[in-house]
Amino acid sequence: MPEVRAELSVFVSDPIVVDESLFALWLSGLSAKDAAEARKGKESEPEVSDHILLLDTIQQFSTFAMLEQYLQHPSKLETQTIFQIAPESRQMLLRKYYSYDAAVIREFIGKKLTSRNRKDLDDVSEKTRIPIRSCRRQFDNVKRIFRAVEDLEGSLFANVCKEFLLPESLARKYACFAFISDCRFETGKKRLAYLTLDDFIYCANEMIQNWTYGMQVHEQTGEPGIDLDRQFLHFLADLKGELGDKDVLEQYRNAMKPLLVEAIPGSQFRLMDTNVKSFFKTLLKIGEGLVHSKDLKDFFSDIVEKFVEPCRGQEIKKESVECFLRLSLKVSRQLPPLRQTLEAQTVFERYMTTVQCCILRVY
User: Fold this and answer.
1) Quick one: pLDDT at residue 8?
2) 8 Å CB contact between 141 and 155
């Protein structure tokens, strides 16, 4: 019997040690030369010649560049065999790679994630003073996550966690970015310039929780969690006609007045009492428009222009606005259109609870 021989090629390597501070310099978009300069004189760095420090930086930057294809597709990072990476190092790499600068994301949040807008990142880089390579990484990360989860069924937040293996807090923020991109919310108007990225994240999270099909796939439609609940929006639009009826509005005003007298001090009460019907009608009008894509896009602009700015213009305090919104929801439950069915109450509460959170956040 002839002898059978098998030839095997075996490659053995030590687990790579990732210098977290150097990885951060690479992510920031610095060149290897500039990163080497930044390393000079730091206590954590060995005392070596400038030439050796530059060569080491170039070598590690090269490793990071090879790792990038796996960081862009995290499931492959776990299964690839080229680099031995400890689990804690993998988590750090992903957490750092998907970190972001709020000033950069704020510039393009809500815009279409197209190649044309990517070309405009030179302006973003100049405005924020963040190197262009870092701006592109952040833009591409948001686009990649949005593309990956937009057609998936189920919880938007859970899908981001599953597909990109990110920490929960970071995954939730990217879920909000994906939601804002999907709804095409207008965020760049001058009157919205004072709003921070965290303001939009907060409001988007409230909408995801209350206005989409929720954290689970909708039982009847099977729609993914990124989509707004269309049935809810249509029902809300219909409610505007009923709650905006002249007689119903008068009942609302009569019920609100004694509650406002008790809850809001003198001059503030007079200001709020004068506007109570018009403010309520404004909220109804904004809710009615959410079923239309154009009006939905202008949601933030509408609540600032049509509600927040008029209140500020009359020097109505935030505490008074909060009281008005809370009491409006309470009184609305007793109005005939909402008293008739539990579904009507539920729909209006879903809307008002979220609008209240958003208005108070941006006030």
Assistant:
1) 53
2) no
Write the CB contacts of 220 (distance below 8 Å, at least 6 apart in sequence).
none
Strand ranges inside 285-324, DSSP E:
none
12-21: long-range contacts (C-beta < 8 A, 24 or more apart)? Answer: 13/84, 14/84, 15/84, 15/85, 15/86, 15/89, 16/63, 16/83, 16/84, 16/85, 16/89, 17/89, 18/85, 18/89, 18/92, 18/93, 19/60, 20/92, 20/96
Residue 111 corresponds to which tokens in the numbers above? 């815009």
DSSP class of residue 45? S
Per-residue pLDDT tens digits for 104-123: 999 999 888 998 899 899 99
**DSSP conformation letters of 112-143:** ---HHHHHTHHHHHHHHT--HHHHHHHHHHHH
End-to-end alpha carbon distance in the chain: 87
Neighbours of 103 (CB within 10 A): 15
Q: Is this structure's pTM higher than 0.85? A: yes
Rg of the chain, C-alpha, whole Å: 27
Give me the pLDDT at residue 223, please.
42
pLDDT confidence of residue 217: 46
Q: What 8-state DSSP symbol labels residue 292?
A: S
Q: What is the DSSP letter of 86?
A: -
Non-local (6+) Cβ contacts of 337 within 8 A are 239, 242, 243, 245, 248, 344
Which pLDDT tens digit goes with each residue over 30-63?
Answer: 999 999 998 887 766 667 788 888 999 999 999 9
